[in-house]
Amino acid sequence: MKYLLYIVILFVSLTYTGCYDLDRFPQQQLSPSTFWKTETHAKQAINACYTALRNNELYNTFFGMDCLSDIGFGYDAKGYWDISRGTWTSRTSIVLNRWKDTYDGVRRTNDVIRNVSAMDIDVEVKNEVIGEAKFLRALFYFFLMNHFGGVPIYDESVDYNAEYMNLLNPRSTLEQTREFILEDLNDAINILPAKWPQAEYGRATRGAAHALRGKVYLYNKEYAKAIVDFEEIVLDPANRGYGYELYSEYADLFTQVGHRSSEMIFSIQTFSEIGNALGLPYAHYLGSNATLGTSWNNVMPSNDLVNMYEWKDGRPFNWDDFIPGFTESEEIRLKTLRATLTSDRKSVESYPEYHEELLEMYEQRDPRMQQTIILPYTHYMGLVGGQERMTEFVYATGVAIVNGFVVVNRYNNGTHYMYLFRKFVPRGNEGGTIPNNYRAYIPIDFPIIRYADVLLMLAECYNEEGRINDAVNYINMVRSRPSTSLPAINSGPAWLEARTKQAVFERIYQERAVEFPAEGHRYYDLKRWNLAKEVMNNRDIMDIMGGVKYTTKFEDKDYLWPIPAAEIDNNPALEQNPGWQ
After folding, report:
1. Is residue 206 located within the same domain as residue 101?
2. Is the Cβ–Cβ distance between 526 and 548 less than 8 Å?
């Protein structure tokens, strides 16, 4: 697929300019007299649909959705700040842009299905391209449904060139929207191959369609149907050769080393070369000032996430068990975590009293903690003055990048102490793979569905169907990844016991939190479990020293996003969601 990515940038710029608005005629159109003629045209067109995944409010900064949950913290991060504090409305920009950017993807897939169906090209190529478009259209509508509920359905029968002034459909019901998604996925499953040749890596597969269909069923609590789809991938009963498996090194999944491993079922493809870049802005939003020298760390892991990581023997972690009095005493927290720099601020004059104990504690925790998060007094390969340099993350007044420290850009005045993400954040200059003028666009693929997600979703379905042992088996598979290697649930000690439906659910709740940070799943997990209000309403988001940064708000109405007011202004047939104006 990579060779097609090179040509798609020009194609998209000529074809789909700006954000798509269902009530606005696109400024430029492909002429049927010159396009929609060859197999190359069909493949160029479907690649434009894949490129829509990077739209700003689709998956471009999807990692930031964790800011709306218990495992993330966000400052002024792409509108997440307003949503998490409950200050958003139907006119908040992220609401309108999420609607428009996703419908832009819908429009692209409809154009492909409509036009490719009429092309005189090889039937196999035609069917494969249409299958890809239907998978992507299902993904876009599933994205819309998870935010807004039932939405207007526009399919390939719509000629956007002729009907752009009449795209005024009312909202379909939630059930109708779901059925439309499932019909597309049924078609995709019957068309798409289990695998593509390596040169076509990244295109949607039959396995990706099964995984997404299983997810649609899971979100609707149709557990038996979801099991069939997930087992198709995990057990491969017809020997289709999917070949999915857990990658041995968790940390490498989110770097250029392992981002295209057999664990990835469907992901957003990226690349970077001299003069071009098609990546995602991980550095800008997740990184610190030591990341490429340009980053803001708008999106950070929460204290709650860090505290969720178990000891290596599977015991729950508690600060007070490690350092008595830590939770209640600010003085003890300062002794544990705050250092003093030398007068020239070039080195550490004195480390915290519990510095050595702190470093030893990290080594005794779930390895995913250090693989996901830059922890106090650990090191990170930064980029200082254009040169790669090992930097240390120190909590102290006066730390500066030029002196070799990781700087928390937004919160570094001596009174704020946050954690930082390591996951997805580029190390140094990633071996020179990031062009200087494209440092915001990091060539690391973003997973939308990976095998570990399918294993834990299958475990959840088994648990709901009363198959406790089967559920535990698949949770243990994720825990036993070689680089994680945590003890199995129900393997002896009392703290590893989980033999009831509720106890196993609590394990799934925990495991999904620590397995998928910065992948955007947590917010949707909490909503579908109907726990978002319980977990996220009136929750104080605190730094590690106990300082309250802000208090979250989540009301019943927030389970659905508001329909954008601007869309209702344009289309009076749209009805607003309950509780919104």
Report:
1. yes
2. no
Residue type, 271: F
Alpha helices in 256-324 (DSSP H): 282-286, 303-308, 319-322
Alpha-carbon torsion, ordered 552, 557, 560, 562, to 10 deg:
-100
Bridge partners for 390 per DSSP:
381
**How far apart (Å, rounded) are the C-alpha atoms in residues 568 and 466?**
44
User: Which pLDDT score, from 0 to 100, does residue 78 have?
Assistant: 63
Do residue 187 and residue 333 come from a single domain?
no
State pTM to two decimals: 0.93
Could you tell me how far CA 101 lies from the centroid of its own chain?
17
Q: Which domain holds residue 323?
A: 282-444
List, in order, residues 6 or more apart from 331 with CB less than 8 Å away.
none
Do 211 and 328 fall within a single domain? Answer: no
Handedness of CA 147, 153, 158, 162 (dihedral sign): negative
| Domain co-membership, 232 together with 298 | no
> Among residues 65, 226, 44, which one has the least CA distance to residue 143?
65
Dmax over Cα atoms in the chain, in whole Å? 76
Residues 6+ apart with CB under 8 A from 404: 346, 384, 389, 390, 391, 392
Tokens 């039932």 found at: 150
Q: Which pLDDT score is estimated for 410? A: 54
- Residue 17, φ and ψ in degrees, nearest 5: -95, 130
Same domain, 294 and 409: yes
Structure tokens belonging to residue 566: 């601007």
| SS3 call for 280 | strand
Looking at the 3D structure of the chain, how many domains does it have?
2
Q: What pLDDT shows up at residue 564?
A: 98
What is the token pair recorded at 459? 């475990």
Print the SS3 string covering 348-377.
EEECCCCHHHHHHHHHCECCHHHHHEECCC
User: What is the DSSP code string of 542-579?
Assistant: E-TTS-EEEE----GGGGSPPPPHHHHHH-TTPPPPTT
Low-confidence ranges of the chain (pLDDT < 70): 1-33, 76-78, 162-165, 272-277, 293-294, 409-416, 435-440
How far out from the chain centre does Cα 195 lie? 24
Please state the three-class secondary structure of 429-477 as a single string: CHHHCCCHHHCCCECCCEEEEEHHHHHHHHHHHHHHCCCHHHHHHHHHH
Q: What is the CATH number of the domain that holds 96?
A: 1.25.40.390
Q: What is the pLDDT of residue 64?
A: 93
Q: Whose CA is closest to 323, among 290, 356, 283, 278?
A: 356
Give the side-chain half-sphere CA count within 13 A for 351.
Answer: 12
Same domain, 174 and 322: no
> Burial, 559: exposed, middle or buried (Cβ in 10 Å; 0-12, 13-18, 19+)?
middle
